[in-house]
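---------- Forwarded message ----------

FYI, see the Chromosome undetermined SCAF9489, whole genome shotgun sequence record below. Original note from H. follows.
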Amino acid sequence: QVLAVSGSVPLQVSAALCAAQDAAYSLQDLLERERTISNLLKQHIQDVQPSKDHLGRMLNQIQTIERHMKYLRCLYFIEECSSSIQQCLMTGSVWEAIRAIDSMGAVHARLKASGCSYLKEFLQETLTFWHKIIKDRLSSDFEKILTQLQWPNISPTAQSPVSTGNYQEQNVQLELLVTQLLALQTTDDLLVHSTSSVLPVQSTISSATPASPLCLPIQIMLVPFNKRFRYHFCGNRRTSSLSKV
């Protein structure tokens, strides 16, 4: 029995050595195939490198063209809004003009972080130009309505307006103008640092509440008081006395 066992051991060792040798041959074959594939891959990368460089240049050109197209589309949008606002003001469509102003204001806000300084300057000037025209027109109409309603009614002898059909029509127009001025407030806040978009009373109010400027209707309603105050208390008039305050 001992002889049988001792005789089978060399056979098992021999089989294990053969299996190990076969595994070594297989591993060597795999390594050879890996080197071949690696060389083919490197050669392929070298072959396609010029195409890759050419494609990269084309992509850069496409991106440049896309940026130019966005720039031109923005210019076209500004011109279209300007033409639309002009037509709306000629036909009396104030609401449409305000919506166009809001659209330009939205683009103005999106371009705040842009590096296109000339485009931003052009948009700023265009927006300020049309915003001032619309605000001046609405302010003028609003002041006329206030005058018809005897604003400011600060005289003790002044009579209250009579409730007539004309008075009701004035109230309707007053409400419409207030709504339109409030709708214009968003764009006015964007241009708060532009001197061309500030009402005369703003210089007096902004020093008191720079963080929260008054809405446009209130600013206009305060103009008569501001004028009266300056007339009586700014200068050497006899009314310039603390007892009159």
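H. also flagged this: Residues 74-151+173-192+218-234 form one domain.
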